[in-house]
Design brief:
There is one protein chain. This protein is α/β, with parallel strands linked by helices. It is built from eight helices and ten strands. It folds into two domains: about 260 residues, TIM Barrel (Alpha-Beta Barrel), CATH 3.20.20; about 35 residues. Helices cover about 35% and strands about 10% of the residues. Strand 8, helix 6 and strand 9 form a beta-alpha-beta unit. Helix 1 packs parallel to helix 3. The protein binds zinc ion (ZN). Zinc ion binds next to strand 5.
């Protein structure tokens, strides 16, 4: 993944002492997938990693879209709260080095490489001085998304524009299929060939991967590591792997809810909530009651 200006590079604009450079130290980190109680796993770090998809000027028909004005409001709040942006790869490297991470760090990620990431997202990110990572579907660059409601995707020139503005990219596979359903050869191609294609076309190392649909298992984590990535991103479920860093979906909800997403232990609180409500659901089922009022905040 292309390195960009960020707090861990020492380029801070608000007087906070920068951390030492992260390069040079490589410590092997095991990436077990343990099925603990109700999916409980110890995360490598608790820096909030925000996940976005489409950004739109008005209310759109896309299931994962955020109106530009609300994105602006979120970024303004992050600025007001003195958050500083960091890349997922820098988080992973700091964990590898055993380096403590300062508070009020946030990582901003946008999946799929939609054209509006550039046209709407980039001006706002620059306005508020944040760096973000866009995860590209390497086999669909310059085309239209076909894994969800069709929407235009950035072309190679536009991706270069994104990079030239100091932003970063990672791989989101070749064709955005559920990797768990693929035979080994296709899994390797989705993970490895997407990396090679992005590096070839963009001339930069691509070291971060985001799992399509945020679905993965042990086999997929191994494939990502073997392909030479340094980190990976997944969804809100707890994960103890640097190749499936927990992200929270920020493309819905109020500004008040957004504040909750920034709480470092939000994913753990959500897991506790799920565990408690799951217990309640069993109890209701056992009592023969309707549990239709149960709400799973699975965002
Ligand atoms: Zn995606």
């Amino acid at each position: 993944m292309g390195r960009s200006r960020s707090v861990l590079d020492g380029e801070t604009d608000d007087g906070v002492a920068p951390l030492p450079p992260l390069s040079g130290v490589r410590v092997a980190v095991e990436t077990p997938v343990r099925n603990g109680i109700a999916g409980w796993r110890r995360r490598p770090c608790r820096v909030p990693i925000l996940m976005y998809h489409r950004l739109t000027l008005g209310a759109g028909g896309h299931p994962r879209s955020l109106i530009a004005e609300r994105f602006r409001g979120q970024l303004a709040l992050l600025r007001e709260l003195r958050f500083r942006s960091v890349l997922p790869g820098e988080i992973a490297q700091a964990v590898r080095c055993g380096m403590p991470l300062p508070s009020r760090l946030v990582a901003i990620t946008l999946d799929d490489g939609y054209l509006d990431t550039l046209t709407i997202g980039l001006p706002l990110l620059r306005q508020f001085g944040f760096t973000a990572t866009c995860y590209l579907v390497a086999g669909r660059v310059g085309r239209t998304s076909d894994w969800t409601i069709p929407a235009p995707l950035m072309g190679w020139g536009e991706v270069r524009e994104w990079l030239a503005a100091g932003m970063a990219v990672g791989s989101h596979s070749l064709s955005h299929r559920d990797l768990r359903t693929l035979p080994p050869s296709e899994l390797r191609a989705e993970v490895g060939d997407s990396k090679a294609r992005l590096e070839d076309r963009l001339g930069i190392p691509v070291e971060s991967f985001a799992h399509p649909f945020n679905r993965f298992g042990r086999r997929e984590l191994d494939a990502v590591e073997l392909a030479g990535y340094r980190d990976g991103c997944a969804g809100v479920d707890l994960s103890d792997s640097l190749f499936a860093l927990t992200r929270v979906s920020a493309d819905y909800g109020s500004l008040g809810w957004f504040r909750i997403l920034l709480v470092p232990v939000y994913p753990e609180l959500r897991r506790v909530y799920l565990m408690v409500t799951a217990r309640d659901r069993v109890r209701w089922w056992w009592a023969g009651q309707d549990d239709s009022s149960a709400r799973w905040p699975d965002r």
